[in-house]
Design brief:
It is a single chain. The chain is an alpha+beta fold. The protein folds into two domains: about 160 residues, 3-Layer(bba) Sandwich (FAD/NAD(P)-binding domain); about 180 residues, D-Amino Acid Oxidase, Chain A, domain 2. About 25% of the residues lie in helices and about 30% in strands. The chain contains nine helices and 20 strands. The strands form four sheets. An eight-stranded mixed sheet has the order 6-7-5-15-16-17-14-18, with helices on both faces. It has a six-stranded mixed sheet with strand order 9-2-1-13-20-19, covered by helices on one side. The longest helix has 18 residues. The N and C termini lie far apart (about 45 Å). This is N-methyl-L-tryptophan oxidase. Keywords: FAD, Flavoprotein, Oxidoreductase. It comes from Luedemannella flava. Its cofactor is FAD.
Length: about 375
């Protein structure tokens, strides 16, 4: 008999889980309080970066390496273009993470990359104006992803494989035991054999038993319309991440849908996911423009084309929460992707399918143990 699996949350990781589970023959019921893709989670904004020389840690490289062919498989299965190569340029002082972390990951895994001094960056990529003490790490394999289209593609394949995906279904609680699992909704209780919890910004509520010290924060993605948009075409203008000595980090993506993205990776203040993120302000656009002025001056002088808000759900160590629930072998957990998880979506979906159907995975995900905070393994603290 096919195992019946409930997937709670159909955003990025829930959509991927529903797709991979249904593709393996599971009887999937997916639930989401909204109708993904939407603007109440981490995926809104039209584009996301995919890169392999991973500044967040070399341990991520095998996973993102595995993600690339899976993105291509998703494109082939749906006829949608989801991954556009552009290369990536990581900028800043040589000792800050964008440069140092990317170079270290590239060296450890033998990834093709180049270290460029400021003059070479300016020569090859004239839109950028690094200071004399800044350098760049260029990785040709990187590019951009289309998140909303990708979620639609994954959910479509899940439905085609027989998944029952229900939107407008808010999950208020769940239980698990030797006899199976169940979730509570306004329409009553659903029961199944196994459960995947991928609740995005609502993870802190639905997984309160894990004592996850999660922060839900607002991020603003700004879009700019320079006079010569063709100069920012992905084949001419790489995705980029730039660490500044003051601790700020900016990033950007070339021209897609008539505008260029340039935004900050940081934000301020906690957000109630039930209320969502406040709209961007002109003052925030002005602040972004000031940050760009000495780094990407042509964008700083460009017309502001608007902004899109999204929510980051952050862990204290910024590593993911992904694995089996420590108290329930028939429950798998995926949350806290800390603003850098989208590129891994197909792999995360496969890992969740492994955990749910096989009880384990060969993927190297020990770093993401959902029980690591409950056991007091992390010494830091956050506002809760």
């Amino acid at each position: 008999m096919r195992p019946r699996v409930i997937v709670v949350g159909l955003g990025t990781m829930g959509a991927a889980a529903a797709w991979r589970l249904a593709a393996r023959g599971a009887d999937v019921v997916g639930l989401d309080r909204f109708a993904p893709p939407h603007r109440r989670g981490a995926h809104a904004g039209g584009t996301r970066i995919i890169r392999m020389a991973y500044m967040e840690g070399a341990a991520y490289v095998p996973l993102v390496r595995r993600a690339y062919p899976m993105w291509r498989d998703l494109e082939a299965a749906t006829g949608r273009r989801l991954l556009t190569p552009s290369g990536a340029l990581m900028l800043g002082p040589a000792d800050l993470p964008a440069v140092a972390g990317s170079a270290e990951a590239a060296r450890e895994h033998g990834l093709a990359h180049e270290v460029l001094d400021a003059a070479e960056v300016r020569r090859r990529f004239p839109a950028f104006t690094p200071g004399p003490d800044e350098v760049g790490v260029f990785e040709e394999a990187a590019g951009l992803l289309r998140p909303e289209a990708a979620i639609e593609a994954m959910l479509g394949l899940a439905r085609d494989a027989g998944a029952d995906l229900r939107t407008g279904a808010e999950v208020t609680g769940w239980w698990a035991g030797p006899e199976g699992v169940g979730v509570r909704t306004a329409d009553g209780e659903l029961r199944a054999d196994r459960l995947v919890l991928a609740p995005g910004a609502w993870a802190g509520r639905l997984l309160d038993d894990l004592d996850l010290p999660l922060r839900v924060e607002r991020r603003v993605q700004h879009y700019w319309r320079p006079a010569d948009l063709s100069a920012y075409a992905p084949e001419r203008f790489p995705v980029w991440i730039w660490d500044a000595p003051d601790g700020s980090t900016g990033y950007g993506i070339g021209a897609v849908d008539g505008a260029v993205k340039a935004a900050m990776h940081s934000g301020a203040g906690l957000v109630d996911p039930d209320l969502g993120a406040d709209p961007a302000t002109t003052a925030e656009a002005d602040t972004m423009r000031e940050w760009l002025a000495s780094r990407v001056p042509d964008l700083a002088a460009a017309e502001w084309a608007g902004a899109v808000e999204c929510l980051y759900t952050l862990t204290p160590d910024t590593d993911f929460v992904l694995g089996p629930h420590p108290a329930h072998a028939n429950v798998a957990v995926a949350c806290g992707f800390s603003g850098h998880g989208f590129k891994f979506a197909p792999v995360v979906g496969d890992v969740l399918a492994d955990l749910t159907l096989a009880g384990g995975t060969e993927a190297p995900v020990g770093l993401f143990d959902p029980g690591r905070f409950r056991r007091g393994a992390f010494a830091g603290g956050v506002d809760r």
